[in-house]
Amino acid sequence: MGHSRGVFSTKVHAVTTTGGKPLHLEVTPGQQHEATMAEELLVHAEGDAFIADTGYAMPTASSPTCASSG
């Protein structure tokens, strides 16, 4: 678990369907950057496109189409 101002923090990364049904969850320490989980989450994604926060941005030519939510 990570620390934030002296207390533990965590991040929960989720892949869901368009209806919000969870397909896959990952938990990481709070100080770990989101981009470190992008490849792992994409393995569990369905469909041809996805929406993700810009923290998951991966500058690779092989990445699927990504619409960023900001």
From TrEMBL:
Q: Please state what the protein is called.
A: Transposase
Q: Which organism is it from?
A: Corallococcus soli
Q: Which domain of life is it from?
A: Bacteria
State a single Pfam family of this protein: DDE_Tnp_1
What sequence ranges are listed for the domain Transposase IS4-like? 4-57
